[in-house]
């Protein structure tokens, strides 16, 4: 039986990461950071998962659910590519959980490499910020990190495998606990894990 939450660690990137996009609003209004932080190699290494705060206990979280497109139970959906870094309480008392998406394998990665690519990470970054500004409660994107590590994608989906650049999204949510966190327990008769 898998645990619902396990200790997880980002897998360092081989090449130097660089910040390609950020949300000024998230960084200043939620994370209480100033512009000089964006130029800091320490911030970029943190957002890439290359350097972590000592004694920080990071977590990966298992959830499941139904595929919207087909309506069928899909089993475990994640999280095989994200690590929760911890909780931050900002200057106005809001609590936010920070997460790195695309930071490498977790205990829930199954057969995947735990990496995200630039194409899907740009979508993630833009969609989460757009949804928020449309008034839909959702997670927020703080930064998008890219580097020259390459991973293979689309080997099994469309039969056109190609290498793509790795990307990591530093994102925030009030909680990463979701309906699928309960669904997978019920579906697998693991209610005792609650």
TrEMBL record:
GO terms for molecular function: ATP binding; metal ion binding; nucleotidyltransferase activity. Keywords: ATP-binding, Magnesium, Metal-binding, Nucleotide-binding, Nucleotidyltransferase, Transferase. Belongs to the SELO family. This is Selenoprotein O. It comes from the Eukaryota. Its cofactor is Mg(2+).
């Amino acid at each position: 039986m898998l645990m619902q939450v396990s200790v997880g660690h980002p897998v360092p990137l081989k090449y130097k990461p660089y910040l390609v996009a950020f949300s000024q609003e998230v960084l200043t209004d939620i994370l209480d950071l100033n512009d000089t932080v964006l130029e800091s190699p320490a911030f970029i290494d943190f957002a890439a998962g290359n350097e972590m705060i000592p004694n920080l206990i990071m977590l990966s979280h298992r959830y499941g659910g139904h595929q919207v497109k087909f309506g069928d139970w899909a089993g475990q959906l994640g999280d095989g590519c994200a690590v929760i870094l911890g909780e931050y309480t900002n200057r106005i008392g809001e609590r936010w959980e920070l997460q790195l998406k695309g930071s490498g394998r977790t205990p829930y990665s199954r057969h995947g490499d735990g990496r995200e690519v630039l194409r899907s990470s740009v979508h993630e970054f833009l969609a989460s910020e757009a949804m928020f500004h449309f008034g839909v409660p959702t997670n927020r994107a703080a930064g998008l990190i890219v580097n020259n590590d390459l991973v293979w994608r689309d080997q099994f989906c469309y039969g056109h495998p190609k290498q793509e650049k790795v990307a990591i999204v530093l994102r925030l949510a009030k909680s990463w606990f979701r309906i699928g966190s309960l669904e997978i327990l019920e579906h697998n008769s693991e209610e005792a894990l609650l």
